[in-house]
Amino acid sequence: MGGSREKSLQPPVFALYCKNMKVYVQQYCALGRQYLLIKSIYMMAENAAHNRRSIDEKQTTGGARMIAIIDYDAGNIRSVEKALAYLGEETVVSRDPQVLLKADKVILPGVGSFGQAMENLHRYNLVPVIKEMVKNNTPFLGICLGLQLLFESSEETPGVEGIGILKGRILRIPPSEGLKIPHMGWNSLHLQNDGRLFRGIPEDTYVYFVHSYYLQAEDPQIVKAVTDYSTTIHASVEKDNVFACQFHPEKSSKYGLKILENFAKLEKEGN
To answer: How far apart (Å, rounded) are the C-alpha atoms in residues 167 and 176?
Structure first.
């Protein structure tokens, strides 16, 4: 009898032990999350201070050129930053208008929805900043979604206005037997109209695309590269100091890096 009673008491005791351990683990995890959050905030503040110091030093001492990458919560920023770092270029990731306006060159990357991206740009008041940079003749490069945003509108989100610096339509890639949408993969480029980004790039170079919508530019003279995927896609454009690529140069091997290098070497007044 005594033995059976002792055994019957063990499960509740064990359950209480497990419950207490669960509480301890939860408290430990919560403390860990708080530590990581504080560390993340500290690192962000430190990076922001470092970036601001770098910009200020270069402006006051005439240091090396600085390429700003616009941060508007639209993804693909780090891969662009890493590609430029590989090329030895100084970069700053920012949405601060003063930082962006001081930069020697600016890149607008992006992956995602046209409508959401425009909402983010308006939320951070970046549309007038982008227009001012272009007006100031600062070399400006849009990548993937960044290309599409430079135009007036997109079929992806009817009624939403783009930045409108360039004229043309963003259309959905038409369905075609055997081709998947979104278009994800490597396609060759046909080069035309002597684009400055493509100096030293061979004809039929393969680059990497990820998109469901494509550009049909109003002025064929600004189109510097095209590719075929279900239809003719205007893959890169150039007008004055504004450049854009539907593909991802930062993910397009050595020739993609060469395209970024060509952009980095551009002078403010053109070359």
So the answer is: 27
